[in-house]
Amino acid sequence: MYERKIPEDLECGINVSMKVLGGKWKACILDSISKGVRRPSELHTAISSAAPRVINMQLRELEEYGMVCKKIFPGTPLKVEYYLTPTGESILPLVAAIDQWGLTNRDHIIRMQEALQ
Amino acid sequence: MYERKIPEDLECGINVSMKVLGGKWKACILDSISKGVRRPSELHTAISSAAPRVINMQLRELEEYGMVCKKIFPGTPLKVEYYLTPTGESILPLVAAIDQWGLTNRDHIIRMQEALQ
DNA sequence: AAAATAAGGGAAAAATTATTCCCTGCGGGA
DNA sequence: TCCCGCAGGGAATAATTTTTCCCTTATTTT
C-alpha cells in the first residue's frame, strides 16, 4: 500500500465515506456486485472502461474496508466470487442516491460546463 | 482549467455526482455554505485544514457547475458571498447522507484497516 | 510608512490515483 | 505445442489533484 504523506482526517463523516466511495470505480463495483456480478472476469466485462488491474486493486481496497468479502472456490478452473458484507449492503442506498442525483442533474451540469465556451 | 486526457463518462450518474462532490473539500464547502458560512474568509477559517487557494479553486468549480453563485458587493472593503443555487440545495440531502454513513461506520472502517497490522 | 484585511491568481512542486505493460501458474482445447 | 481463459501481482509511467509559495489591488488601521 501507498503510504500517505498527508494524514487523513477521519473525524469528518464525509471523509470516511469518500475513502470508501471515492475511487474512480468503487461505487460502480459495489453497484455491480449488488446486481449479482460477482466474479472478477464478469466485473471486468461489466466495467469495461476500467482496466482489469484497476478493478482488482479497488476490490482489494473494498475488501480491506470490509465492504466486500472474497470467496475462493478451490478447484480448477479456479473460481472467485465477491459478496457484499452487511456494511457493504448498508452503503447501497447511498450509492443509489448518488447515481440518482447524477442522472437527474446531468443535463444541468453539462450545460453549465459548456456555457464557459 | 486543466485539460483532461482521459475522457470522462457522464452517462453514469455516479460519475456526474462525483464530479460535483468528488473533490477533497467540495462537500465540506457545500455543507459550510448551507450552514451560513458564506464569505471566502469565513470559509477559510471554518475549513482550516485546507489551504485558502484550494478552497478558492473548488469554489470556482462549484460555481461552474451551477452549485453555488457568487455575489459581489462592490465597495470597500470588498465583500463577496456565496449562495447555494437550487441545484446546490438539492444535493444537500446527499451530502448529509454521506456524512451520516461515514459517522456511523467510521469505527468499522478504522478497525478493519488497522487489522492489516 | 508599515502592516493588516479583503479577495484572488500564476506557476511550480508534491502528493495521490489511475493506467499500462508484462509476468506467474494452472488446465483445456485445437 | 501454442494459445486461450481463469485469477492476480510488480514495476513503472501517466494523469490528475492538492498544496505551497509568492504576487496583485485597494482601503483601513497602527
Q: Classify the secondary structure makeup of chain A into a structural class.
A: mainly alpha
Q: What's the CATH class of chain A, please? A: Mainly Alpha
Q: CATH H-level name of chain A... which superfamily?
A: Winged helix-like DNA-binding domain superfamily/Winged helix DNA-binding domain
Quaternary state of this entry equals homodimer
Number of strands of chain A: 2
H-E order of chain A: HHHHEEHH
Helix amount of chain A: 55-70%
Q: What count of helical segments of chain A does DSSP give? A: 6
CATH level-3 fold name of chain A: Arc Repressor Mutant, subunit A
Largest interface: A-B, 42 and 42 residues
The strand order across the widest sheet of chain A is 1-2
How is the biggest beta sheet of chain A arranged? Answer: 2 strands, antiparallel
* CATH architecture descriptor of chain A: Orthogonal Bundle
Domain count of chain A:
1
Q: Give the percentage of residues in beta strands of chain A.
A: 5-15%
Task: Provide mean pLDDT of chain A, rounded.
Answer: 92
Description of the structure:
Two copies of one chain form a homodimer. Chain A has 117 residues and is mainly α. Chain A has one domain (13-114): Orthogonal Bundle (Arc Repressor Mutant, subunit A), CATH 1.10.10.10. Chain A has six helices and two strands. The first copy, chain A, has a two-stranded antiparallel ribbon with strand order 1-2. In chain A, strand 1 and strand 2 form a beta hairpin. The first copy, chain A, starts with 12 loop residues before the first helix and ends with a helix. The relative contact order of chain A is 0.13. The model of chain A has no long low-confidence stretch (mean pLDDT 92). The A-B interface holds A 9-10, 12-22, 27-28, 31, 49, 64-66, 87, 90-91, 93-95, 97-106, 108-110, 112-113, 116 and B 9-10, 12-22, 27-28, 31, 49, 64-66, 87, 90-91, 93-95, 97-106, 108-110, 112-113, 116. The structure holds a DNA duplex (30 and 30 nucleotides).
